[in-house]
Amino acid sequence: MPEHGKAGPSLRKGPGPELMGATSLVGNDVYNRQGDDIGDIKEIMLDMRDGQIAYAVLEFTAFFSTGAKLFAVPWRALTLDTENKRFVLDVQKDRLKDAPGFDKSHWPDMADQSWRDEVRGYYKSLLPPQ
């Protein structure tokens, strides 16, 4: 039996953190393991073929104060930090400067296999084994 005042599985009400609405995640901050604020989630891309989240579209504000460049990061590269209510991307800030990105008014064809391979290849070392 859970302690008084603490929610356990039978007392928990509402969504999260195991199941959350996509719109509640848009705007969430993204930090790296060193505690650097590296941006925020602008969009969540669903793969309609398999019903899975494919990418989080991030704006790495630390590098682009104009907010003109966006980056698709494989969803599996992000970890939810429930304590700090943010996501963690385990990457050094400097490495993100060379990440494949795109202009916010000219999105790539995210279903294109060569584009997907480029993005996955860049973040490959951050992805957990399948």
Question: Can you say what the CATH homologous superfamily is?
Answer: PRC-barrel domain
The gyration radius over C-alpha positions equals 16 Å
CATH class descriptor name: Mainly Beta
The end-to-end span amounts to 35 Å
The CATH architecture would be Roll
Succession of helices and strands: HEEEEEEEH
**Biggest sheet architecture:** 7 strands, mixed
Low confidence ranges: 1-5
The tally of structural domains comes to 1
Question: What percentage of residues falls in helices of 4 or more residues?
Answer: 10-25%
Overall SS class: mainly beta
CATH fold title: SH3 type barrels
| Average pLDDT, all residues | 82
Task: Give the strand order, joined by hyphens, for the main sheet.
Answer: 5-6-1-2-3-4-7
Give a quick summary of the entry.
The chain has 130 residues and is mainly beta. It has 2 helices and 7 strands, in the order αβββββββα.
Written account of the structure:
The protein is mainly beta. It has one domain (22-126): PRC-barrel domain (SH3 type barrels, Roll). The protein has helices spanning 22-25, 113-123, and strands at 29-31, 37-47, 52-59, 69-74, 78-81, 86-89, 101-103. A seven-stranded mixed β-sheet has the order 5-6-1-2-3-4-7. The longest helix has 11 residues, at 113-123. The radius of gyration is 16 Å and the shape is globular.
